[in-house]
Amino acid sequence: MSRKFIVLAIAATAVGLALSVAGPAWAEPSDIGKNVGDELQSWAKGLLLAVAALVALPALAKRDVSQGLVIVLLVVIVGGFVYATTPVQNTISTMWNTVAGSAEKGGK
């Protein structure tokens, strides 16, 4: 087989896999924001602890407590956004309403 055919087959397979994974995100045009958000949330849940473990390896190797605590703090904050979506959504809505409300009052 020629190299071009192999490269095209690999590219077609990669595009097909990418489209099959992203299929639910494109399901309904009216719900595209929710669908993309759900897709990103599922990816974030799958990758959060794996990336945290890879980042923590150098801290463990150096036995650096401060760097380890920073990693733990970041994982807790990011994990809060990824796993506790309803409370985070309510908090962001409350903050936005506070900012938007004070901006409107200041402009009048």
Automatic annotation (TrEMBL):
Output the superkingdom of the source species.
Answer: Bacteria
Q: Which UniProt keywords apply?
A: Membrane, Signal, Transmembrane, Transmembrane helix
Membrane spanning stretches: 43-61, 68-86
Q: Where does the record locate the signal sequence feature?
A: 1-27
The protein in question is named TrbC/VIRB2 family protein
> Which organism is this entry from?
Conexibacter woesei (strain DSM 14684 / CCUG 47730 / CIP 108061 / JCM 11494 / NBRC 100937 / ID131577)
Q: Which classification does the entry list for the species?
A: Bacteria, Bacillati, Actinomycetota, Thermoleophilia, Solirubrobacterales
